[in-house]
Amino acid sequence: MNVATVARVDLRQAIVLDQEGNEIACRLRARFMDRSKRLRGALVAGDEVEWDTDAQDTPVVEEILPRRNFFRRRAAGLPPREQVLAANLDRVLLVASLAEPALKEGLIDRVSVAAEIAEVPFALALSKTDLAEPGAAEDTARRYTDIGYPVHALSAKQGTGVPEIYATLQGKRTLVIGHSGVGKSTLLNAFEPSLGLRIGAVNPVTGRGRQTTTAALLCRLKDGTEIVDTPGFRAFAPWGVSPEEIVMSFRELAEASTRCRFPRCSHKNEPGCGVLEAVESGRATRERYESFLRLREEMAEEVEA
Q1: Do β-strands 23-28 and 13-17 pair in parallel, antiparallel, or remain unpaired?
Q2: pTM (2 decimals)?
């Protein structure tokens, strides 16, 4: 058996990278698919697999090796279901623009929560500092560094901040995620000029250009650093915990919630609530607290639907 890393999944085939970085188009066994002949997250970018050739000398994925972690979200549409984006990650990097489009801190909170659920370190890149109001990057960064998350301010077009952020990703596998238009592609191209061409390269299986809006794609750079590029999205919701448990994935609220007087505290108006005390004392921001309440309410509505 040959061991390789999944770079991309296309319908019922996968593009894998061998140890030398060569792309191999592999057929997938039917046992990896559900009754509708869909993978449903059984194989994603970053998975390690064993492959061999069949009687027709066609490469075939024979086994999917155990994952050390995986990052997932709530898939778009109804009914609610899980969507696994990537596996075996060293970091999740969210790119959020300070302007054009405007900063959405609710998204930062949701992606950081999903990373906590996956037990993958989270980092934030604040892009387009050249378009932001003076002090905007510093104010936003402080809110998240106080929690313990690394924050990088950058302007990919001007090249400022790019070497510093790349140094933190070098030699690791990072999932890069963000809304459409925030400068994610510009940042990736700044890491390595050929990366944009590789992301849009011709698919060796279909012979067509890759549609990077539909699936995650792992690219291995010249120095071995691996970037998992993801499609832009309009909305994001974490997956894998109940509404009652979601507070434990807000890092600064988790410990505070253990000090609540009542075991089934709603963290809204109960006396002796540790979460409210943390907000009132300034150990947690009101913005993050309100973001937690909105997310929990949204999750509860989905459970009831």
Answers
A1: antiparallel
A2: 0.91
